[in-house]
Design a protein that fits this description.
Helices cover about 45% and strands about 20% of the residues. The protein is an alpha+beta fold. Helix 3 runs antiparallel to helix 4.
Length: about 200
């Protein structure tokens, strides 16, 4: 199992830097990694359909907007980074059209769709590093190192090299996912299996 500090130290190793013991230590590397960690993680999670981060859950109905093509408005999932598909009901197989909107009146992101009782398939913001897939750890550490390269080393060539390696690691992960052909079970069947 990998930890948050393991990922940070892997990124530092890509840069030829010594590791850290904590993100709160009085060290420039720790401060920079602490600054970059969450935004880079969110970006890497959004870029690919990582199986460990993909969920399918019912959406919460907010209001009935006036747009007739999209009569239902749902709350954007609280832990959602990227909504990939929207279905009607738990057993829905055919995805519905949807769009992400911002509603000023309620001051939040929302999903507008013609799907009644909408269920979203989305990438969640995984906080526990022990849940990360090994391919994600590799890609994330490379992306983190690429973003840190200029600020910690000033080496532009190293930054470009790490970005290239990051792109290659994403391509490897896509091939792996295609060969695994994972399916997301409806939320109801996951609940029944847990019982």
């Amino acid at each position: 199992m990998v930890s948050k500090i393991d990922i940070c130290n892997l990124a530092l190793a890509h840069l030829g830097q010594e590791g850290i013991s904590s993100l709160t230590q009085d060290d420039e590397r720790a401060r920079r990694i602490h600054l970059f960690y969450e935004p880079v993680k969110a970006e890497v999670l959004r870029t690919h359909n990582w199986a460990f981060a993909l969920v399918r859950e019912p959406l919460v109905l907010l209001e009935d907007p006036s747009a007739p093509a999209y009569p239902y408005l749902y709350q954007y999932p609280a832990d959602g980074l990227f909504v990939r598909k929207v279905f009607a009901g738990e057993s829905g197989r055919k995805p519905f059209e949807f769009k992400e909107v911002y509603r000023r009146r309620i001051n939040q992101r929302a999903i507008q769709t013609p799907a009644p009782q909408a269920v979203a398939e989305y990438t969640r913001d995984v906080q526990d590093a022990t849940q990360f897939d090994p391919a994600f750890v590799k890609a994330f550490s490379l992306a983190l190192a690429a973003d840190l390269a200029l600020t910690l080393t000033g080496d532009e060539a190293l930054s470009r090299l790490l970005l290239t390696r990051y792109a290659q690691s994403l391509e490897e992960a896509r091939r792996s996912n295609m060969s695994e052909e994972f399916q997301i079970p409806p939320a109801e069947s996951v609940f029944m299996e847990a019982r």
